[in-house]
Design brief:
With 226 residues, this protein is an alpha/beta fold. The chain has one domain (23-220): TIM Barrel. It is built from eight helices and eight strands; from the N terminus they run αβαβαβαβαβαββαβα. Helix 7 packs parallel to helix 8.
């Protein structure tokens, strides 16, 4: 099993390898959910440390989820955290990546000696070039629906015509489901797709096995892997 950035580069597109869209399920809230998500073939599991989120988990409980996550890589999701908050999460869970959704400075994001994903909301006046230049040390960028009140997890799709070109990996988020993910991959060819509410049951935060399996199946078929 490859680890860290070596694993990333192996999965990344190049002339020798097939296109494999990575699958990230974000806001996993129970060890049981992590087990069936991993078994379904999901690549990345997001653990949400943002206290105002309904999918929030404490570092101690995140450690229990991480132990059930199998081979899936672990992404810690934060919104304007204190340095000590991120450090406490890293001390408790072997996070592979950090994901920042707030107004964190580039220096802050890069201060933990971990590859990081910088998320942003996309709207009509979104200037991706300026954003990417500011966060030039990010490993990847996550593009989500813009919302002034919420930091992701809204279940809303942004205007895909605003999808930019990038020399770094782009992760597509916002309103993805098994019904629209194939079209999204065909149109934008993201490095990864990120889903939360699109695979949830009625209780926010709890993932539904049938929906997770359907989502994974559609991604695999889109890549020609099914």
């Amino acid at each position: 099993m490859l680890a860290g950035l070596e694993w990333v580069s192996w999965r990344f597109r190049n002339d020798r390898l097939p296109v494999n869209t990575l699958i990230k399920v974000c806001g996993v809230t129970t060890p049981a959910d992590a087990e069936f998500i991993c078994a379904a073939g999901v690549d990345l599991i997001g653990l949400n440390y943002y206290q105002n989120s309904s999918r929030h988990v404490t570092p101690a409980y995140a450690a229990e989820i991480a132990r059930a996550a199998g081979d899936a890589k672990l992404v810690g999701v934060f919104v304007n955290p204190e340095y000590a908050e991120v450090r406490a999460a890293l001390d408790t869970v072997p996070l592979d990546w950090l994901q920042f959704h707030g107004s964190e400075t580039p220096a802050f994001c890069a201060s933990f000696d971990k590859p990081f994903i910088k998320a942003t909301g996309v709207s009509g006046n979104f200037d991706f070039a300026s954003f990417a230049e500011r966060y030039s040390h990010a490993f990847a960028y996550l593009l989500d629906a813009h919302d002034t009140q919420h930091h992701g997890g809204t279940g809303r799709v942004f205007d895909w015509q605003l999808w930019p070109e990038s020399t770094k990996p782009l992760i597509l988020s916002g309103g993805l489901t098994a019904e629209n993910v194939s079209a999204a991959i065909a149109r934008m060819h993201p490095w990864a797709v990120d889903v939360a509410s699109g695979v949830e049951a009625d209780v926010q935060g709890r993932k539904d096995p049938t929906r997770v399996e359907a989502f994974v199946r559609k991604v695999l078929r889109s890549d020609g892997r099914a």
